[in-house]
Structure formats: structure tokens, C-alpha cells
Amino acid sequence: MATTTLTTLAEFEKAARQKTSEFAWSYVSRPGKDGQTHTDNRQAFKRYRLIPRNLRDVYIRDTSVTILGTKLDFPIAIAPTATHRLLHPDAESATARGAASMNTAMVLSSWSEHSLEKVAAAAPRGVRWFYLLFYRDRGRMKRLLVRAERAGYTAIVLTADQPFFTFSFRKVPSTLPMPLWFPNIYLEDVPPGALGSLELADYFKKTIKEAATWEDVEWVRKNTRLPVVLKGILSVEDAKMAVRLGIDAVLVSNHGGRQLDGGPATIDVLTNIVRAVGGEAEVYLDGGVRTGTDVLKALALGARCVFIGRPALWGLACNGAEGVQQVLQILKDELNLTMARSGCAKISDIQPSLVVHESYYLY
Ligand code: FNR
What we know:
Elements: H1 9-19, H2 22-29, H3 36-46, E1 48-50, E2 65-67, E3 70-72, E4 76-78, H4 91-101, E5 105-108, H5 116-122, E6 127-131, H6 138-150, E7 156-159, H7 183-186, H8 197-207, H9 214-222, E8 228-233, H10 236-244, E9 249-252, H11 266-277, E10 282-286, H12 292-300, E11 305-308, H13 310-342, E12 355-357, H14 358-362
Parallel strand pairs: 4-11, 5-6, 6-7, 7-8, 8-9, 9-10, 10-11
Antiparallel strand pairs: 1-12, 2-3
The structure holds ligand FNR.
Ligand FNR binds at residues 27-28, 41, 79-82, 109, 111, 131, 159, 231, 253, 255-256, 258, 286-289, 308-310.
């Protein structure tokens, strides 16, 4: 598909839908329950307005940022999402190449169908973080931490907002173009194709520790030399707890509205989390980021970087690594332009005074 004519993420979404099987599309798009949180993630961005500062010298702009000590060309990275092979045969390796070509970071999901080593080899110069699942067997977790470190992953991401997995493999249609294969999860004990979908669900139930606790987070922090990012933080209390445990960064996230429905839009809780963290850890945000203006608003409210989930998958579905690159390029260009129009020449010029919630002037 010629994707060079696509100029917005909304256009990528439309094109991706046409290219993707019904099963894959519903997997990628589905919100949790009624979709209130999923919808609000998007709508909430629109409730913030920008108050630009004009007549500043913004002729030359610099969108670069440093997260966990690594410089990125712009503050937009790729959130962990599962099973990229449903969208494109080159799967996570293509996503990693797309991110690396733009000099930004990608978080690889444990639920990837290319092993963490294969993804590392596909984009050796890319910035890669690894999303580690919690397992019942700590030895298994330790082996994965070592594998991630050896393969050049530079941070471990733990997801706090998924205490229950649906393991809906019972619903996977027999028409799936592939057997499902999760090399980061099986470790050495399951050869490819050995398990049918029912056995898979049982295998996951037996090995993955669904309802993890702070104690598990602390164990990970003590058992890796890599920085740890805690993803799925929405409350001030949890943010403070993360800081107390020495977590390096919190990612304000509601899983793209796929877990608890009825929770807040991420942008609406960002300010409180930033305040609670008080500079003791980096703060990131994901959920509903679709334009450069959204990015600017999140940065103004205190996020150091934002992450995208579904939009990267739309790019992947449309055009593999190149599609991922194009989606990132669109967001980067939009951010750059919005920075110019709001009087910001560099990321540190993006300050809270740039943004006002509509309720301040409507009422
Ligand atoms: C996800 N997300 C997710 N999060 C996580 O911590 N581990 C995972 O394996 C997955 N898998 C996953 C699959 C799919 C298909 C989607 C859409 C999402 C959540 C993801 O990391 C991120 O929080 C949201 O996708 C961000 O919201 P947007 O950008 O999709 O609106």
C-alpha cells in the first residue's frame, strides 16, 4: 500500500483497518468493557487549550530529550503491545527497525512473537526496553532479566495495571494464519507449535503470576542493574510508593483503556502524579496520544516523554517498519510545528503555563 499519501494518524488508522483481519483489528482496537476510559483518553486532550507565547525566536527548534540517560530525537516512544505478527509478518523486528530509524525507543512486550534477542539483532542500534511479566517462578524472571541485559535492553518495564489476564485463546479462530508462539514466555521449555490454544491458556495460568504485588516490584528492582519503569500508575499513593521503592520512572497509563473501565483519562491525572513524584523519578504518559498537540500538552503538564500503543500498530499493519517510521515522523513533525506556533524552541521551553484546562475559562 502506498502510505506516503497518509498525513495523519487518523488516516493511518483507517488504512490499517482495511488491511487487517477482523480478528486482529478487534484485538488491537478493543477497549475494556464499555470503552468509557478508552474514549476519554482521546477526548480529555481536547479539554486542554494552549496559550501560546509569541514573538520568541523559534526559527531553529530542537525536539530532542533524554530519558533514563539516553538521548532520543524527540519525546515520543513506542509502548509495549503484544503479537505484532497479527499485523505484519516481520512482527516486532519491523517495529523495532521503525523506531530505531527515527532514533526513538521501543518497549518490547513479553508477548512478542520474535524473541527479545531476535528483535535486538533486527535493530542493533535502537533504544530498547523490555516489558517483563511477573512469573510464579523467580528463577524464570531472573533468567529473563539476564537475557534482556545481555541483549542490550536498557530498562525493564513492569506493568502494574493487569492483575488478571483473560487468556482468551479459547476464542482464537482456527483461521489464524499462524500458530501462536511466545518465545520470551516459554523460555526453554516449549518447542514451537507444541501447544494448541487450550494448552496455551493452561500453560500461561500455571506460569504467570497474575496478581503481582509491590513485593514483586521490589524483587525486580533488586535483581537487575537496569533502571525499572513502573507502567500503569494513576494514583498519587501508588506514585509515592514507587518513589519509595526507588523506581526510576513511572508511566502514567490505563493500558489504553483496555483494563479497568471507568478510570480517568491519563492526561487528567498527570499533574497530580508529577507533583507526587516531586522530581524523584521520571514521569511518562501514554493513552490516546494521536497528534503533536497532544504531545505538547502532556509535556507541558510534566511528562518527560509520551508513548504510543495502537498508532504504531497501524503503521506496522500498513507498511511494516516503514509504516512505523512514518507514524513517528508525522507525530514528530506535528510536535515540531506546534512548538513553533506556541513559542517553544526546545523541549525545556514547554512549561505548565502553556496549557489551561477549559474549565478555567468556561466557568
Ligand atoms: C497493549 N498494551 C500493553 N501494555 C503492556 O504493558 N503490555 C502488553 O503486552 C500490552 N499489550 C497491548 C496490546 C495491544 C493490542 C494494545 C492496543 C495495547 C497497552 C499499551 O502498552 C499502552 O498502554 C496503550 O496502548 C496506550 O494507549 P494507545 O496509545 O493505544 O491509545
